[in-house]
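Review form for a predicted model. The reviewer records the input and the model, then writes brief findings.
Reviewer: anonymous (R2)
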Amino acid sequence: MQPSSQVKLKQLRQILHALKSCGIAYSGGVDSTFLSKVAYDVLGENAVAVTATSSTFPKRELDDAKSFAQSIGIPHIIIQSEELDIKRFSDNPPNRCYYCKKELFRKIQQVTRNHHLNVVLDGSNADDQGDYRPGERALRELHIRSPLKEAGLTKQEIRTLSKSMKLSSSNKPAFACLASRFPYNVKITKERLEQVEAAEKYLFSLGIRQCRVRYHEHIARIEVGADELAAILTYASKIIKRFKALGFTYITLDLEGYRTGSLNEMLER
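Model under review:
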């Protein structure tokens, strides 16, 4: 019999208590917000949330991170981490995330040392063991702990527990950094990131909750959940006009819909 989410939550609290202090890589997403809440409940001021801003991190996500951290009460530090300065990242090889995570977590480790905290935590959960995740290598090399995964908590369990704790992040759509919108080996630039961010921001303004705009040079490939396909078609003429103004020539709708890691399908082939 699988342990219940409450049993896993108890185990998570025990793990955090044993750490005594921690810095948390905090994006403002469902997982890192939940982890920050529990860590603060267990450790108080000895738990610190650290958010890294960069060209791949949209302003709306930073605003969410600030808001959620304030609602929890956890100390919140914002640092700058510009992955585009790393050529091996901006060239966008299949192991791009390795270079990003290595840079990011080194900087977070420096913050934890400056604040005399024992360890850095990330929000990976028990479901984050499939797909292609080269960033996990960087976490292992830097000895980053993933207590949600260690406790066996799944994404759905984290959402359910977050809701019971009245966390406003509980129903937030999944998010991945903007670099994930680019096919491997297509160079990532600040201008292209801004183009994609503006396109997705426009879709959000239309009420679309879960979407990705995948960048294929002159083509924008829109992924949305199955329940929002009709809404995209309703706004088709407006979307075409806006996306063309942003610099896209062709605007397409992926009939397979939103799915995480869709650009990894090319690697599988």
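Findings: DSSP finds twelve helices and seven strands in the chain.
Further findings: The chain has a mean pLDDT of 92.
Recommendation: see findings above.
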